[in-house]
Amino acid sequence: MKYPLIIVSIVIIVVISVTILLTTSNSHSISFQPDNYWIDKTEIASGDGYQGPWMMNDSDFRYVDAPSADINDNNYIGVTWVDQAEKNVLFQMFEPGGEARFDEPVNVSRSPDIFSWLPRVVISGGDADEVYILWQEIEFTGGSHGGEIYFARSDDGGRTFSDPVNLSNTPAGAAKGRLTARYWDNGSLDIIKDDDGTLYVGWTEYEGKLWFSSSNDRGETFSDLLHIDGDNDLPARGPSLAVNNDGDIFIAWTVGEDNEADIRLARSVDGGESFGETQIVFESHGHSDAPKIIFDNDGTLHLAYAESPAGQFQRYQIRYSRSFDNGETFEGSHEIANPQQNDYDSMHFPSLGVDEENNVYLLWELYPDRQDRSLGLGFTYSIDAGETFASPMVVPGTDDPDLGINGSLQGLLMRKLAVNNNGEMVAVNNTFRQNQNSYVWMYRGNIAQ
Questions:
Q1: How many structural domains are present in the chain?
Q2: How far apart are CA 15 and CA 9, in angstroms?
Q3: Is 416 in contact with 180 (CB distance < 8 Å)?
Q4: Residues 172 and 272 placed together within one structural domain of the fold
Q5: Which of 4, 193, 336, 429 could in theory staple to 318 by disulfide, Cβ–Cβ 3.0 to 4.6 A?
């Protein structure tokens, strides 16, 4: 009888172990571990490491900054960033093998007298022939803050770009995501493309309004601006766009001037002609910030955001939820990464991706000291459509103190992660050391490695 008892004991131990593993994964307790999912690190650009005092467009800034990336299903990667010394948005395309398409990066903004900040990029087509870039141009047109939303497109794989077009035309400080009168993040903007080729763009302004526009002719023209929400008393901040399989458009954001800010969500069922009533996704006494949303192939809406239970400027954690009914309801918010359980003081500004198998990918900023700039990128993933997540880990090489802090120095409302349908990942980051150097980096990986 002893052998059956041994077998039964082994089975019990295995069941208990699996139960503990699933419980740990569902509660999202943290254990920062090294990983081998990130297999390639590439230096995209380098520059000086100098940031002088702010003197508007006469400021002496000399560093590379604020990258964003996209990857298509054939593994072409488009990366955009800014060179503060040139005051321009730059672009480079990478072939599936990893080699750069151009000997020198392409100048997209072509405005050397005006700072260009915090671009976003979308690439499309099998050979990535179509490239769309949205960014913030620091024009001062009479308001209290400078900022306009600019757009340019390429139909030859990024070799040339159309003349930049001003989509906002406002003195209200476009692309600024205000927290308080004295603190805001630039880069409060987003752009996506649906399967039919329609482009959707959204942004906020310092004065508080959240704006939306679309283009059904691949960026030739854009619709009239639509004011979705936000005002001077409760300024909208950090918009994120998503579109479902039926073509309904969703936009999520948070607000400033509120120590207990909550994530907002609105939906359009008429192609962006109008948006329904704004709903609060979760009500809490904490400060919720920097949401990201995305749909998977089954129509599940995934949401990631940062929250500080103690309010603004305190310790933030990364949280996640999902909706199975187009945002009507969300399951309970889960803690993905909590700074109190490891050596980091805070975590903030997530990026979010999915692949065709409905695997979910999350990337975020790490703060050894919340009073200082971020240093390192946290990462996790789910292979069961968001039911459970792997223990969070650090993207290797992003937390090297010899490289300096993470950017962007103008704000961290960015999109640093892109994932294609095949599960190929690309993350971008930049590092800055005052009076020494600055770099833009690209990391490629796959969780199947």
A1: 2
A2: 10
A3: no
A4: yes
A5: 336
Alpha carbon distances (Å) from 224 to 169, 215, 335? 12, 10, 39
Say if residue 47 is in the same domain as residue 125. Answer: yes
The two structure tokens encoding residue 165: 């077009």
Contact 158/122 with Cβ under 8 angstroms? Answer: no
pLDDT tens for the chain, 449 residues: list them: 333 433 334 333 333 333 333 333 343 334 445 567 998 999 999 999 999 999 999 999 999 999 999 999 999 999 999 999 999 999 999 999 999 999 999 999 999 999 999 999 999 999 999 999 999 999 998 888 999 999 999 999 999 999 999 999 999 999 999 999 999 999 999 999 999 999 999 999 999 999 999 999 999 999 999 999 999 999 999 999 999 999 999 999 999 999 999 999 999 999 999 999 999 999 999 999 999 999 999 999 999 999 999 999 999 999 999 999 999 999 999 999 987 666 799 999 999 999 999 999 999 999 999 999 999 999 999 999 999 999 999 999 999 999 999 989 999 999 999 999 999 999 999 999 999 999 999 999 999 86
CA distance 80 to 58: 23
pTM for the full predicted model: 0.92
Does one domain contain both 111 and 95?
yes
**What single letter denotes the amino acid at residue 361?**
Y
49 and 19 housed in the same domain: no
Per the structure, the complete domain to which residue 419 belongs is given by 33-446
Interior/surface letters 71-107, b for 16+ CB within 10 angstroms, e for the rest: bbeebbbbbbbbbbbbbbbbbbbbeeeeeebeeebbb
Cis peptide before 288 (omega within 30 of 0): no
**Among residues 25, 41, 98, 52, which one has the least CA distance to residue 435?**
52
Strand partners of residue 278: none
